[in-house]
Automatic annotation (TrEMBL):
<dbReference type="InterPro" id="IPR015915">
    <property type="entry name" value="Kelch-typ_b-propeller"/>
</dbReference>
<protein>
    <recommendedName>
        <fullName>Galactose oxidase</fullName>
    </recommendedName>
</protein>
<keyword id="KW-0880">Kelch repeat</keyword>
<keyword id="KW-0732">Signal</keyword>
<keyword id="KW-0677">Repeat</keyword>
<feature type="signal peptide">
    <location>
        <begin position="1"/>
        <end position="22"/>
    </location>
</feature>
<dbReference type="Pfam" id="PF24681">
    <property type="entry name" value="Kelch_KLHDC2_KLHL20_DRC7"/>
</dbReference>
Length: 226
């Protein structure tokens, strides 16, 4: 029994955020986001295993010093965020736009200014997208392209929303020949083409990794490559 207690204690110790010799060490989590701004990788939210709840934590990894820095304690106010999406934008590409997530929140979009460490709700023109989770997003020349996703009621969204982070305006993207609604997929930007791979459909079936949809940003057109 003594040995079991020691093992369980060590495992629990690894789960929680802690400071070792003054150095912040983040605990285990999933459903968070990561974005690079300058020499820092910012991590937002996720599911904290130790507390069994989503978190509103924001911290970063300094790539120059290989050290973690916790900034949530600086008075940053952000609702619980898990399975959301986030991407950089703004004129100087130093603002992280945080969208959606599983936890009920009447506000779909927040912005985190990495220069001031302030979270705020930006005023955006256009039709605000329906809040959801398990979306994918990429950033291209100040615009964030957000595709599909699902909510906690298992509703899948046939949505392609574009956030112009320079002019602060929502746009509706072209859905002609777009993929079927899906969640938990990936989107990857190569040059000016977004590649959408994998994910799950409403019927519970997984999508073949061989069916790769491409969205040409310059032409605003979709195509399927098998």
């Amino acid at each position: 029994m003594v040995y079991i207690f020691i093992i369980l204690s060590c495992q629990l110790f690894l789960l929680v955020n802690r400071f070792v010799y003054g150095q912040f060490i983040p605990g285990l989590r999933l459903g968070h986001t990561a974005n690079t701004v300058g020499n820092k990788i910012y991590f937002i939210g996720g599911y904290n295993f130790a507390k069994s709840i989503p978190t509103s934590e924001i911290f970063y990894l300094n790539k120059e010093t290989d050290t973690w820095e916790e900034i949530k304690s600086q008075g940053i106010k952000l609702p619980f965020k898990v399975e959301h999406t986030a991407n950089i934008g703004g004129i100087n590409q130093d603002i992280i736009f945080i969208m959606g997530g599983l936890i009920g929140d009447t506000n779909f979009l927040y912005q985190f200014d990495t220069k001031t460490n302030i979270v705020s709700i930006p005023i955006i023109q256009g039709k605000v997208p329906t809040s959801r989770a398990f979306m994918s997003s990429v950033n291209f020349e100040g615009k964030i392209f957000v595709f599909s996703g699902q909510n906690s009621d298992d509703i899948y969204f046939n949505s392609f929303d574009i956030l112009d982070t320079i002019n602060l305006r929502w746009e509706i993207g072209n859905l002609i020949n777009a993929p079927t609604p899906r969640s938990k997929h990936t989107s990857t930007l190569v040059n000016n083409v977004i590649y959408y791979i994998g994910g799950m459909q409403l019927n519970g079936n997984y999508i073949s990794m061989n069916d790769i949809y491409q969205y040409d940003i310059g032409k605003s057109t979709w195509s399927l490559k098998v």
